[in-house]
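Work Package 3 (structural annotation) set out to generate three-dimensional models for the target panel prioritized at the project kickoff. During this period the team completed the workflow that converts sequence records into C-alpha cells, so that structures can be stored uniformly alongside our sequence database. As a representative example, we reproduce one entry of 265 residues exactly as it appears in the project archive.
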Amino acid sequence: MSNPFDVLAQARRLATGAGLDFEPPNLRPSCISEAEFDAVVRDYYTFFCEHLAADTSFLVRLRPAKDVDTVRRLLYDLRTAANHADNPKSEEAAARWRGEYPSPQAASDALAGLLVAALQALSRAAVAAARDQATSREWREVASVEVGAVFVAVSEDLGLSFTEGNRRRMVRLIEKRIQVHPRRGDRHALVAEYCAQEILADRRPLPVPYDQVLDALGLLRSRQASGALLIAHSVAEIAPGLRGEEFLERVAETWRTAGSQSPPA
C-alpha cells in the first residue's frame, strides 16, 4: 500500500511545483506512559493542524472528508485538554475518547490509525486536484503565499539550508511580522521579501524584489547569494533614491568592485 503522505507530497509537487518540506510523525509510536501519549498528541497536532493546515483547508473545500474533520477536532480536544484548563468542552471530549482505550499504547495506536485515514482522504483529494488544470492553478496560488513553502524557496535561492528547529523559528517570526505589518500589494512578493530579510537578519527593505538582484547578478541558488544581498542592502541604505534598473546597476557595479579587490599581502 502506498504511503498516503508520500502520495500527498507528490501530488502537491505536481500541482504546485513544490513538495512538502517536513516529514510525517511516527505513525507507529511506542507509548508506555501518559506523558508519552501527550507527546504523540503534540507531534500529531503540529504536523496535521499546523504544517498541513493550509493544504488541508484547500483540499477539504474541494472534497469534504469526515476522516479529516474527525482527526482535526480530536487532536484539538486532546491537545487543549493536555495544555489548558479553561475549555471544559474539550476536556470532556478528550476524556470521553481516552476512556475508550485501556492503555496509552492502545490510545496512540487508535490515534495513529485515525491520522492515517485522514491522510488517505487528503491524498485522494490531492491526486484529483493535481489532475485538474484549473484546480492545480488554484492550489499553486494557495501554496505560493504559504510562509513555510516560500521560506524554503527563498532559502534555496540564497544557497542556504537550516535545521528544522531554526526553520520553524524563523517561519513563526515571519508569520507574526506579516500579521503586524501586512502591507498592501503582491502578497507573495511581501512574504518572499520578509523571508529574505529574516534569513539575512536584515530588516532594511530593498527597492526591488530580492530575486531580481540575484537574477541580475546570475547568483540564484549560489553560495554567494547571501553576500550579494548584503551588498544590495548596503547600497539601498547608502543610496536610498535609487530605484529599478539604476539600483540593480549600482549593486552590480558594487559587486564587481568587491570581487575584484585583491586580498592584502
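The mean pLDDT is 89.
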